[in-house]
Amino acid sequence: MSLIESSKKDHIIAWLAALAITIHIIESALPTPLPGVKPGLANVVTLVALLLWGWRVAVWISLLRVLVGSLLIGTFLTPTFFLSFSGACCSLIALALAQTWSRKVPAIAVGPVGYSVLAAMMHMLGQFLAAYWLFIPHKALFHLLPVLMTLALIFGMVGGVIAARVVTNLNSNTQSLSKILR
Amino acid sequence: MLGQKLTTGDRLLLALAVISLGALYAVYWGQSVYGNQAAIAIGGKHWSSIDLYQDRTIDVEGKLGISQLEVKDGKIRFISSPCDTKQCIHQGWIHQSGEIVACVPNTISVRILGPDPRFDTMNF
Lengths: 182, 124
Hints:
The complex is a heterodimer. Chain A is mainly alpha-helical. Chain A has helices spanning 8-28, 42-53, 55-73, 79-104, 112-135, 145-172, 175-181. Chain A has a single domain, classed as Arp2/3 complex 21 kDa subunit ARPC3 (Orthogonal Bundle). Chain B has helices at residues 2-5, 8-29, 87-91, and strands at 37-42, 45-51, 56-61, 66-72, 75-80, 100-103, 108-113. Chain B has a four-stranded antiparallel sheet with strand order 2-1-7-6. In chain B, strands 3-4-5 form a three-stranded antiparallel sheet. The relative contact order of chain B is 0.17. The model of chain B has no long low-confidence stretch (mean pLDDT 83).
């Protein structure tokens, strides 16, 4: 008998968070041309969770990824962590708004690519503003913003296409899996 | 492949993203880094602000005597000064906002004014 009952949802969160953390760590080992720029493939996991199981699951996965990822890389409570954390918060808030919008107005509902682009750009904006307010309060930093946001748009689109693929495959090819996880 | 997966909401969001990107480029990259005015100071006190697109030479009287400044095509330089080292003349033209040229012995300094000073050790 266990003291804490774990639900099916807890298992989904744990599995997907582990996957996201793994991708996050692999990505952090990649060299980047600009600080703060990453393909954001770990966010694909968050997106899939959002599309299949809703916003709450996505929040858990995203925040667990930021927290555990930073603990494993060794950047917990360093500037990198705060940037990633503010980016994640920003993109989660934007995703919540977009999902509410999609439910209220199904005629122009947002799809995977839309969510992904929104999440990527808001993540970038969030971490950029955090960098500006907390670490480098100099106006010249804003000259970087257009480039960073363009990259976020591109990576967001790529991530969205991948997420859409993953979702359709999970829904069609592995009926049993999606039944278990749903 | 991408076209089939896009919903109307996606298209709207993408359009919005592209528009805001355009606005970002316009706001942060649109402005020229070239300043269009310069502030001249004598002995550390502001003396005059001048338009850099009005070509002329200006005589400024400092501690040692008269220094001549030349203004041309948005740039400014010292062309003569009564100092010994002529460092101010050797520095040549300056044009970017935040840039400074000074004749220290004659206590004259010229600073390019602009909406967004360039990132350097002086204005960090």
